[in-house]
Amino acid sequence: MSWKTIAYLFLVAFVAVGSAMLGAVVGGLFVYNRVGGVESGSPAEVIAAASTESVSITVSSAEMQTAITNAVEKVGPAVVTVIGELGGQPVSGSGVIISSAGYILTNNHVVENTSPIFVTLADGTELPAELVGTDIFADLAVLKADGEFPVVATLGNSETLKPGETVIGIGSPLGDFVNTVTVGVISATGRVIDTGNGYLMEDLIQTDAAINQGNSGGPLVNLAGEVVGINTLIVRGTGFGGTIAEGLGFAIPVNTARAVAEQIIEKGYVARPYLGVRWQPITPALARNYSLPVEWGAYIFRVMPDSPAMKAGLQEGDIITKIGDVSLDGEHNFINALFNHQPGEEVTLTVFRGSGLIEVQVTLGETRRDSG
Predict the structure, then answer these.
(1) Are 328 and 296 in contact (CB under 8 A)?
(2) Considering 219, 235, 268, which residue would you say is the last residue of a domain?
(3) Residues 284 and 307 occupy one common structural domain
(4) 199: number of Cβ within 10 Å
């Protein structure tokens, strides 16, 4: 190989190396300028600095913890443990003080058929409580205790809740762990749960904040320290051998709870519309088995004497298929469709009688507990 060839190859290598070094320098200066002149730091710091040019989100865990702590300090003293006796056995749940006069909101299933009833305040004071009234359909009850109640919970507005919003559960799980605090989010709103008793619980708040036996009746609280729901039930799975679920808790919206509590405090009960029939729900399976003319509806097997139904001319054997504008089906059952209306309201019922549909006008009465 001649000396000219060697010199040429050396020159090519020198140019290649020089170009690479120059590119590195230029690239480095470009990155330096893009990240605002970071003088030192790890690669992660450089990437973070570069990425914040387009999006900058700051979340302070200290501020979040302070908000949770403040909310608990505000509402916690208004949370009580509810203790009753059922069949000689103690049962317990939670409740929340909603009035300085000693009115306490809890679940119906916490106090149903229990006597006597006591409440234990956050400071350990135990007081006897009187059952003012209940509403089985909303699973709510109001108690009254006599004593000093310097802290009363603030009721918020459940209509403004959004999925992802942080919420806090406060209650006494198992009756022993008084004023336990759990934190989660609003998983969804407007949930519907079939109670298995002929009606649905509608418009429930779903949350993943831990709710256990004994939390029932306790408040679900937002970061402003306002009660936005009354914890009522949990779903663990689909039954024996089925899928097991966690983090499926449900609360009654506080707007519903407030309206029910106001009626109970004023009247001692919640006024519900009364039709005056005994009925059997019709489903597609039942309709096939008995060759019924409709797939969905409420079959009337008894009309109560002197009831709105009797006065309107309803008969045994009639099948109600529609109440007002709501057709009865898998998502709209008889009780919930009826409860869309008020006592004293005139409602049009669509009824299958004989071989066809007829319309019946009925003026609803008022009842405290009756389901039809």
Answers:
(1) yes
(2) 268
(3) yes
(4) 18
Kindly state whether residues 202 and 163 are assigned to the same domain.
Answer: yes
In a domain, 202, yes or no: yes
User: Residue 62 has which token pair?
Assistant: 């200290």
Judge whether 67 and 107 are in contact, CB under 8 Å.
no
Q: Are residues 101 and 197 in the same domain?
A: yes
Range of the domain at 294: 272-367
In the numeric block, which tokens belong to residue 105? 């909101």
Residue at which a domain ends, from 33, 51, 69: 51
Q: How many domains does the chain have?
A: 3
Is residue 30 assigned to a domain? yes
3-class SS of residue 166: strand
Nearest C-alpha neighbor of 100 from the set 154, 139, 179: 154
Bridge pairing between strands 180-194 and 166-171: antiparallel
Q: What's the whole-number mean pLDDT along residues 108-134?
A: 95
CA pair distance 96, 249, nearest whole angstrom: 18
Q: Strands 226-234 and 154-155: what pairing?
A: parallel
Q: Do 264 and 307 belong together in one domain? A: no
- pTM for this entry: 0.75
**Separation CA 178–CA 181 (nearest Å):** 9
Same domain, 101 and 15: no
Q: Outline where DSSP puts E strands in 172-328.
A: 180-194, 200-207, 219-222, 226-234, 249-253, 272-274, 277-282, 297-303, 319-323, 326-327
Q: Which of 234, 257, 207 is nearest to 96 (CA)?
A: 257
Q: Residue 277's beta-bridge partner residues?
A: 303
More confident site: 9 or 338: 338
Alpha-carbon torsion angle 224, 229, 230, 235, nearest 10: -120
| 295, 283 contact by CB (below 8 A) | yes
- 55-83 pLDDT, tens digit per residue, is 444 556 777 788 899 999 999 999 999 99
283 and 247: one domain? no
| Same domain, residue pair 24 and 165 | no
Q: What is the percentage of the chain residues whose pLDDT exceeds 90?
A: 66
Active site residues: 109, 139, 216
Residues 180 and 79 in one domain: yes
3 state DSSP class of 67: helix
Radius of gyration over every alpha carbon of the chain, rounded to an integer in angstroms: 32
Is residue 372 in some structural domain? Answer: no
